[in-house]
Amino acid sequence: MITEKIPYKIYLNENEMPKAWYNLRADMKQKPAPLLNPETHQPMQASELAEVFCKELVAQELDDNTPFFEIPQDIRNFYKMYRPSPLVRAYCLEEKLDTPAKIYYKFEGNNTSGSHKLNSAIAQAYYAKKQGLKGVTTETGAGQWGTALAMACSYLDLDCKVFMVKCSYEQKPFRREVMRTYGACVTPSPSMETTVGQKILAAHPGTSGSLGCAISEAVEKAVSNDGYRYVLGSVLNQVLLHQSVIGLEAKTAFDKYHVKPDIIIGCAGGGSNLGGLIAPFMGEKLRGEADYRIIAVEPASCPSLTRGVYAYDFCDTGMVCPLSKMYTLGSDFIPSANHAGGLRYHGMSSTLSELYHQGLIEATSVNQTEVFEAAEYFAKVEGILPAPESSHAIRIAIDEAVRCKESGEEKTILFGLTGTGYFDMKAYEKFHDKEMEDYIPTEEELAAYRKNLPKVES
Amino acid sequence: MITEKIPYKIYLNENEMPKAWYNLRADMKQKPAPLLNPETHQPMQASELAEVFCKELVAQELDDNTPFFEIPQDIRNFYKMYRPSPLVRAYCLEEKLDTPAKIYYKFEGNNTSGSHKLNSAIAQAYYAKKQGLKGVTTETGAGQWGTALAMACSYLDLDCKVFMVKCSYEQKPFRREVMRTYGACVTPSPSMETTVGQKILAAHPGTSGSLGCAISEAVEKAVSNDGYRYVLGSVLNQVLLHQSVIGLEAKTAFDKYHVKPDIIIGCAGGGSNLGGLIAPFMGEKLRGEADYRIIAVEPASCPSLTRGVYAYDFCDTGMVCPLSKMYTLGSDFIPSANHAGGLRYHGMSSTLSELYHQGLIEATSVNQTEVFEAAEYFAKVEGILPAPESSHAIRIAIDEAVRCKESGEEKTILFGLTGTGYFDMKAYEKFHDKEMEDYIPTEEELAAYRKNLPKVES
């Protein structure tokens, strides 16, 4: 029931913006499995986690029952600087596809960090500041998270130390420069600044680094320095909580125009964007108030949901972090050099993993050349140059819209457009020059990684 | 008189967006001087201009009397894809500066071309399409105009041929890649594709090109190919007309909240952004309905308004284009290698030149290191990474706000934030590494260029 013409872009007013984050887990009957101590295999206690993470974030991490967390006024003020993000009706895309489907996307790229990552970065930095800390440490691969955290820390006058995977540091000097603009200290990882970095450099001179190594360095730096904590941009419950602002805004915008999406699509790496986008919709689904088809899209080269196993595994390659029960390819899985750096993660948010396990979410995987075809098509038709990560969702949204054309169904599709691709033009160049390849791990390769999963008694 | 709290960002509704462009010249008693034929020194006739430009654009170019031109529905539809742009109240900046001034900026960077250039690119492409042309040619330096035109042509299925100054082509491969994403053919200039390019390469093997040469190549390509015309992203009356959408939106947004700016600030290269931003405000000023202080900001390294002369000069270095009466440094003036590529132009819009000559606009110039200080400060405080060009306006807006603090005046300041700096990180890097220099041409240098101005009897 559409009562008035939907604008191209729906912007909420300031007074319509969410005042609380929504904690999806509160409505799950079967909760996600708890984090385990990697040595004792016992559930991680708040006191243990508080050595690495800020206190209030630990509380959010472990709380499976509180449905809403009030967004502190300071964070809401920061959100006003770049939010609300528009809910866009893709009229041009619909026309070009000649589909009866109605396509919407929630566009999170209109901020300098270029993605949705800022929603959680400001929250994590805020709680660090509130705790009286001097600063935070983190790792970054593609650089979106590092940029977002640098912006948040600059705003709050917190020190920000980023370990950037060395190959990214060298290949993406402009991302690094944005972080420097925001006053962050960016170190290529592995580095000589940490014990673990020194060990790795000694064992593998000339290595170009990995996300796992950068995590280990960032954690070591945090726990070995007074007044510092470690922060992470995805996977964790707290991150999904903060990212619920995406879905809450989208739902409010839809409700204003009496629109209900049939299909919700998001790319999935660690799960922060998808978990945030679907939060209030999944809440309705869990409470039996509405039904939605929800599709997670991942790269065929890093298919944790579609080809991984549901098991306890390390969150990091260095195996220093807690164990999380999730769909995983094994913590030593090294994804091929695909261009969606934000989706190159061996595991998946434990909440999304449990929802997938319960059959409440579908998952599909796509090849990167198909993804870039969709990206370029979308850029031309809708005028936004999408990030490679976001383009995974575009690919499936287009496929679903084409399916609607074939079947004549007028479905309403919502997808998450997480960010822009301005710092990914090297990938676009490869695509234009037909030098882009698709990588699909073989069954044998995946089986080999699975063998290394930690043995946890269930 | 402020009747309600001003939101951080004011977005107009679709039905509040401008339906017509405003032609500032209609309200000028003393009109800008006409373009002259470079050989006969007689006013350019429509028929002469139509060999190079689209017919309807020629009509817009020469019309000093019609106050409003209806924006065709197709262009308004395209505008809806990325407009309205937000009018932002810079609460954070005001707080940080501790100023009683109220600061607003009209942010034009939230589109893939990264700047306001798209406003005129779609209009020019539209009229080319309407005339049944196959395509358009243009030149680009920094790449913002080329990107915008590529996007517009892609949307309308027009061929787009861009001559990109060779040093930019090599230094900014990512800008080039964005244009390729939109299907544009990008050629480093000078090239072997044109007679003028061949001549220049023969005379100066290994030259890294210049904007003047690229213009000459683009014009030659247009006039020597059936079904093509040449388009230009600034300087011309038609461009200022299209860009009036910026000022019209800003004025509507202000009027909604009963706010009236005291000072309006814009960077000025060829004048497209400043001319568009001030249009409706200057209209009121010309009609005696209101008064505004208007400040044009230019680089100290390319000071056409502040240190140029008001005289007839060539619009291009190649001296093939018509003569325009404007503030100019001489068409063979080569600006130093500053990082605001969009402001490296020897002349200025004839309309803005005439307004400046009449004392209706002020002008000031700033050094690039001061500009980047302001840029970084603004990025940290307001969360938007500005383009070097835009940062000229930021610099003066901050200076004026600080002056208000000293005097205790509660002035309302509006400035144009024309674009984002994602493709300018090399410049930011130089600034961070303290390798950025300021260049100010000496009086002797400027005098030498002035000697080469064409002799036109007035």
Strand order of the largest sheet of chain A: 1-4-5-15-10-11-14
Please tally the helical runs of chain A, counting DSSP H or I stretches of 4 or more residues.
18
Largest sheet of chain A: 7 strands, mixed
Tell me the Rg of chain A in angstroms.
21 Å
Taken as a percent bin, the fraction of beta residues of chain A is 15-25%
In percent, how helical is the residue content of chain A?
Answer: 40-55%
Name the poorly predicted regions of chain A: none
> Roughly how many Å apart are the termini of chain A?
48 Å
Overall pLDDT confidence of chain A: 94
Observed structural traits:
alpha/beta; 458 residues; 41% helix; homodimer
Compose a concise summary of this entry.
The structure is a homodimer of 458-residue chains. Chain A has helices spanning 46-49, 55-62, 73-82, 91-97, 118-130, 144-156, 166-171, 173-181, 195-203, 211-223, 237-256, 272-286, 304-307, 350-357, 368-382, 388-407, 425-432, 443-450; strands at 9-10, 20-22, 68-70, 87-89, 102-107, 135-140, 159-165, 185-189, 228-230, 263-267, 293-299, 309-314, 323-328, 362-366, 412-417.
